[in-house]
Every structure is written in C-alpha cells, then in structure tokens.
C-alpha cells in the first residue's frame, strides 16, 4: 500500500470511529479495504436495536418554579393603646372583626369606638373648635351610622353636629355631653381584626397602655426571598400558595421590600441577604390561623404549547449541544435538538421532524 492510500485509510478510519463516537453506539459501521486495484465500499450504517426505557414527546405548557417557605398571616399589624386610665370592663375576642361603630374595649364601662378615617384622633371635638378635616371625618361617620340628621358634612362643628354626637352617645351608653375625645374613638381606614389582647377584664390600666394588637382583615403570606432571586418577585405577579394540608390557592404579590436584610445563624454568622415579599391571598376559605406555614411557588420561566421530553432523554453531543434518540420501529436514531425552558423534570425541545407522541430513549431508568 503506497503512502497516499495509507493516509486515506487512516483518514477514513478516523471518520468511521468519529461517527461511532458521535452516535454513542447508535450506528455500527464496517469498512473493508483491498490492496488490489479496487477497494470495497463500506456498507450504510444501520440504527441500533433499542434496549433502554422510552418516554413520549408531549406538547403542553412548561413551568419552571422556585419553592420558598413562608407564613400565612394578616396584613398591617399595629397596637391600640389606652387613651385614659381606669378598669378594663370589656374586651373583644381574639380573631373578632371590629367594624365602624363597634367598640374596641371599655374602660370604666366607657366604650372606645372604631370610626373610619385616615386622620388619627388628636383633639377633643366639640362646639367651638376650629374647623378642620377631623371634624368632617367625624361627621361622615355620624352620617354613615345614621345619627347625622340635619348635619351638613363639612369641616365645621355646629350645634347640629353636637346633637348628632349626643344621639350617638346615647346609643353607646356614653355620657351625653356632645363632645368626642381621643378616649372615645379610634380612627382607622377600614375594619380590623383583633389579633391578640394584651390585658384582661378587671385589669387596672393607665395611659398609654397596650390594649389590643390588631391587623387588617386581608390574608397575607410573607416570605423571605434570597436577594439574588429577587427577579422572581415582581409586584402584581400571580403565585401559587400551597397550604400545609396540600390545598393550593392563588395569590398575588402586593409588596417587595426595597432594602435587603442580612440574616444571621445561631452562631451569629451572616447567612446571606433576603428581601421580604408580601403576597395577598384572595381565597376566602383559608381558616383563621395566624403564622401558619405555607409554601410559595414562584414562576421562574413559562413556555406555552411546546414539545417536551424528560430531562433524562437529553444526550450531550461531542460536537456540542444536545440531542435525543428517536425510537422508530424498534431502532433508535440520534437527532440534535435545541433546548428551551426546564420545569418539573422536563425540558422544552425543538428541531426538524419532532412531533408529539414520538418515543425517545430515557437513561437512568
């Protein structure tokens, strides 16, 4: 065999071996050479028999999610403190919802009533006070409660306002003096829920003394998300909340902290930075438990109406990229694919000739 032929044989041998490696054993090839004037042609490679497990190519939505532990609680917690001293004579039950016109608690049988408004009570409202938005706020509540007959809702405290106050005081068993003090009302934007009572009926209290811890009535989930995953939490984005009993409900991100907090372990060493994320839960049937553990599923990536295979079906190709083995009539052939989204153990694939229902080999089964 002359030198040129030897080089050709070596080159061809390299091609055949390379094809066998590239196919990972998919194709078997043989080359027969003759030192005579003519060489025999190598036969066409054939697909190998299938001995691995198989799975189907499916079409559907693919969602990649990050699961984060959290707690189901209530929004906007705060404390109601006493505005006068005396003996606690009534308290609401923990978990009770207090609405406009209802009493938070009583001191010496004098109730302190919830009225709606954003401006806190800061002075005694009576005939002769300077006009102001707090007067208008009081008159709106008197009208809503049905006591403001003849009252013009404005910023002036008039004789008509005083008469409306006395009607309201009579209804609540209060002294009918036509005055509303900071010990009589608490102005808050909306109804609230009693989270905890800090005193007991019969306790002697002074002012200011924490009486009640309250929250909004909206259910809320709080999670501490690793700062480097903050891109998963965008205000307004929907998430799935999984309850301890396995029930799944839909929530929506309502707030993402702007400042990360550094967390520390029991050894006082820094563990990393997290951002607090609040999620409002729309479901009505979540029960009344506070601080209940939940799992929040945040969507990292979503691909709709795509072809997918199990991740175990992917094969790394020597030339780079990935491929899969298509099973057809008991034999497998390898084809390159483009990968996309990952989620729930599956991966999006695309490429010429792929179709739903095709079988692919799966390793590790």
UniProtKB/TrEMBL annotation:
Gene3D superfamilies in the cross-refs: 2.40.420.20, PGBD-like superfamily/PGBD
Coiled coil recorded as keyword: yes
Residue span, Peptidoglycan binding-like domain: 132-182
SUPFAM superfamilies: PGBD-like
Coiled-coil portions: none
InterPro entries named among the record's database cross-references: Peptidoglycan-bd-like (IPR002477), PGBD-like_sf (IPR036365), PGBDSf (IPR036366), UPF0194_transport (IPR050465)
Cell location: Cell envelope
Keyword GTP-binding among UniProt keywords: no
This protein's UniProt keywords: Coiled coil
Record's protein name: Efflux RND transporter periplasmic adaptor subunit
Species assigned in the record: Nonomuraea helvata
């Amino acid at each position: 065999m002359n030198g040129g032929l030897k080089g050709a044989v070596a080159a061809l041998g390299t091609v055949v071996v390379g094809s066998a490696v590239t196919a990972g054993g998919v194709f078997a090839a043989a080359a027969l050479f003759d030192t005579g004037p003519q060489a025999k042609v190598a036969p066409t490679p054939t697909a190998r028999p299938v001995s691995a497990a198989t799975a189907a190519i499916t079409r559907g939505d693919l969602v990649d999610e990050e699961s984060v532990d959290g707690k189901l609680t209530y929004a906007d917690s705060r404390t109601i403190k006493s505005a006068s001293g005396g003996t606690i004579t009534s308290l609401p039950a923990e978990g009770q919802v207090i609405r406009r016109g209802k009493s938070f608690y009583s001191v010496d049988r004098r109730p302190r009533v919830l009225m709606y408004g954003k401006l806190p009570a800061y002075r005694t409202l009576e005939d002769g006070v300077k006009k102001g938005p707090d007067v208008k706020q009081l008159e709106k509540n008197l009208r809503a409660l049905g006591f403001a007959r003849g009252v013009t809702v404005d910023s002036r405290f008039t004789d008509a306002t005083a008469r409306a106050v006395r009607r309201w005081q009579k209804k609540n068993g209060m002294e009918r003096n036509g005055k509303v003090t900071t010990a009589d009302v608490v102005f808050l934007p909306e109804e609230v829920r009693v989270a905890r009572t800090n005193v007991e009926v019969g306790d002697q209290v002074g002012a200011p003394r924490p009486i009640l811890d309250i929250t909004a009535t909206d259910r809320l989930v709080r999670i501490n998300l690793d700062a480097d995953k903050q891109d998963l939490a965008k205000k307004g984005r929907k998430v799935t909340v999984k309850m301890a009993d396995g029930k799944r409900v839909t929530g929506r991100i309502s707030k993402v902290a702007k400042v990360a907090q550094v967390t520390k372990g029991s050894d006082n060493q820094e563990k990393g930075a997290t951002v607090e994320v609040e999620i409002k839960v729309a479901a009505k049937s979540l029960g009344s438990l506070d601080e209940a553990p939940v799992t929040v599923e945040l969507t990292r990536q979503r691909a709709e109406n795509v072809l997918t295979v199990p991740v175990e079906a992917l094969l790394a190709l020597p030339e780079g990229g990935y491929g899969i083995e298509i099973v057809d009539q008991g034999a497998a052939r390898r084809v390159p694919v483009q990968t996309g989204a990952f989620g729930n153990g599956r991966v999006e694939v695309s490429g010429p000739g792929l179709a739903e229902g095709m079988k692919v080999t799966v390793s590790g089964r």
